[in-house]
Amino acid sequence: MAGTKVTVVICQAQGRNPVKRQMEEDLLTALITEPGVDVSLVPHLYDMPSDHTGTLFLKSVPGNLVVLGWLYERATRWTLDRAGVRGQEGTSLIVSERDEDIDEEDRHEPRGIGTVDVPDRKLYCLDLRVRSDAADYVNEIKRIVDENSVQTVDLMSFINGSPKRAQLQRYLHPERQLEARRALDGGSTALADREALPEDTRRRWYPVIDYTRCTNCMECIDFCLFGVYGVDALDRILVEEQDSCKKGCPACSRVCPENAIIFPQHKTPAIAGADGDVGGIKIDLSKLFGGDDGTSALDMAVKERDQELVLDGRAAVGMSVGVGSRSHDEFDDLMDDLDALEF
Questions:
Q1: Rounded to whole angstroms, how far apart are CA atoms 335 and 314?
Q2: Beta carbons of 208 and 245 less than 8 angstroms apart
Q3: Per-residue pLDDT tens over the stretch 191-248
Q4: With contact defined as beta carbons under 8 Å apart, do 47 and 34 qualify?
Q5: Which of 9, 33, 191, 269 has the most CB atoms lying inside 10 A of its own CB?
Q6: 17-26 pLDDT, tens per residue?
Q7: Which domain holds residue 254?
């Protein structure tokens, strides 16, 4: 049946944090009967591989889409982009205090190469860590529904009326359907087991590129020595081999001149996708991405890369490989200026 709908997808948190699980359940309970909303629940967005049914579902949504997850909004948006889920950026009224405190003159203005194949629909990304009350998100989604009147097709059938506890559990814990399916089939059919087996959603670690910031300078592909990066048919940088990335290493993000590389699970907000302009000269990148002991961002990145090389059974390379113009510091610039003077 056709109708005016906004698809809402709740991305589950990693682990089994009871507070986060309760938030997800409260949201699902409230939204499942909300007019104008089609709601679904999928595993953590960052952990789903490209062939996961949750990813395929997200890619199949043709109309306006609201994605709620436990990541910064920018990290959610560009993780979706990597999966081929794109749209015009929708504005949410739920923002973190950090983003509210950013001066207008320091807000990032898109200056990158941009993404491709962006459909004419709105994509809203909401960070579930910003508010502790599910009602705030429900009210924001109602506002978004009122703001949009796009005709879409219902892709899934949802429960009418007040959902029962058992019905909610099928959404909140889909992996538990395995035992039930085996019991129905007598535990004997391989096909039933294969269809019911929980899909691969182990914790992952890989970079995500923000193409509104990426200028295609290729410093990341020169710096990374693990084969993570490649280029597409248009010679645009991309994350080609995400599983080659070394878990916990954010070195390439530190050397990116425009803070276009996001590691959504990193503890440092700027690396994890917090908003704000860190390109150009407005913010000192060496302080933002460097160590607490005053180590520069480049020194920190080289150290992290060398550690991973040694763990991989390879030789450390220090500053000798892939640092490009970043090794040219302010002292070098001063000396170049002095050399250019005529006496």
A1: 35
A2: no
A3: 334 344 567 788 999 999 999 999 999 999 999 999 999 999 999 999 999 999 999 9
A4: no
A5: 9
A6: 999 999 999 9
A7: 208-337
Residue whose pair of structure tokens reads 């000269």 in the numeric block: 281
CA-CA distance, 67 to 94, in Å (whole number)? 13
Tokens of 204: 């992952």
Helix and strand totals (H; E) in the chain? 14, 11
* Kind of pairing between the strands at 122-127 and 237-239: unpaired
Does residue 281 sit within a domain?
yes
308 domain-assigned = yes
pTM of the model: 0.78
Q: Are residues 217 and 119 in the same domain?
A: no
User: Are 210 and 275 within 8 A, CB to CB?
Assistant: no
- pLDDT tens string 164-196: 555 455 555 554 444 444 444 555 444 334 344
DSSP letters, 246-258, are PTT--HHHHH-TT
CATH number at residue 64: 3.40.50
Residues 84 and 220 in one domain: no
